Amino acid sequence: MTNEKEQSLAIAEELKHKFEALGYAPTYSLDENAVLNICIGGDGTFLRAVHKTGFSSTPFVGVNTGTLGFFQEISILEIDKFIKNFDTGDYDIEKLDLLEGRVFSKEHKQYIHHSLNEFVIRSQDTSIIHLDVFIDDNHLQTFAGDALLVSTPSGSTAYNYSAGGAVLYRSLKGYQLTPLAPINSKAYRSLLNPLVIPSDSTLTIKRRSEDKSPTLVINDGLNIVCDNFDSIKIKTSDKWINKLQFNNNWYWLNIKDKFI
After folding, report:
1. How many CA atoms lie within 13 A of 122 on its CB side?
2. Residues in Cβ contact with 202 at an 8 Å cutoff, skipping those fewer than 6 apart
3. How far apart are CA 68 and CA 90, in angstroms?
4. What is the C-alpha to C-alpha distance for residues 13 and 10, in angstroms, rounded to an integer?
5. Would you name the residues annotated as active-site residues?
6. Going from the N-terminus, what domains does the chain have, and what CATH number goes with each?
């Protein structure tokens, strides 16, 4: 999958020809028998590919022609090295956890979504949202503010980081609840800082009855408008995706390169 930009399309053709020369049969369409999913672009392209394939168990790798590129390990100058290492099996497989979000309507219907980066729960009209927050059925807080963001370790360097959340190493078993513009006053006592939740705990976020605006659940940048939203239960999913890793130090090098 590519971001359809001229440079990305040219790289896709180059990769196609070079893999064909080694006896592979690359295709631009989804193939259940594929041995590798290649995402050419930035992190947005990687996320779209993961969702489009239905969180395929086939490993993913990213070729970076975008900007940040936290998922995109391969630079355009390293394409030949990447192809050689893949062909000889000189790589590791990194498992990236997903979040499962079960959205419940007031009519008790439920819709299941999976996220690689984050879920965001806010009002559709951007008004203040009031939410009751439970961890393993224990009431934690009644939140008032712009939104609540729930991110995976992989997603901790994305929207979560911009919102003041902590960076979690990708292999850590847990996820993060980060408040967006929380109100802390005599009327409300919202947590002001991120909270890291164990991976075996369930987070429940319930909309309070005084809020009338439709709820917007944002899943990896994809908007889900919920007119009759009641609650969402979030936990670490039983699913995951596999990502190729060629340099064991790449994560820390990436952190330094992008943020420091």
Report:
1. 22
2. 135, 136, 137, 233, 234, 235
3. 25
4. 5
5. 43
6. 6-90 (3.40.50.10330), 98-238 (2.60.200.30)
Q: Which residue has the tokens 């659940």?
A: 217
Residue 172 CA from chain centroid, whole number: 15
CB atoms closer than 10 angstroms to residue 208 = 12
End-to-end CA distance of the chain: 30
Q: Encode pLDDT of 97-152 as tens digits.
A: 999 999 999 998 999 999 999 999 999 998 999 999 999 999 999 999 999 999 99
* Amino acid at the residue 247: N
- In whole angstroms, how large is the CA radius of gyration of the chain? 20
| Close Cβ partners of 5 (under 8 Å, ≥ 6 residues apart) | 41, 65
* Whole-number Å distance between alpha carbons of 52 and 246: 24
How many whole angstroms separate alpha carbon 58 and alpha carbon 245? 14
By DSSP bridging, strand 74-75 and strand 174-182 are unpaired
Average pLDDT over residues 229-244: 96
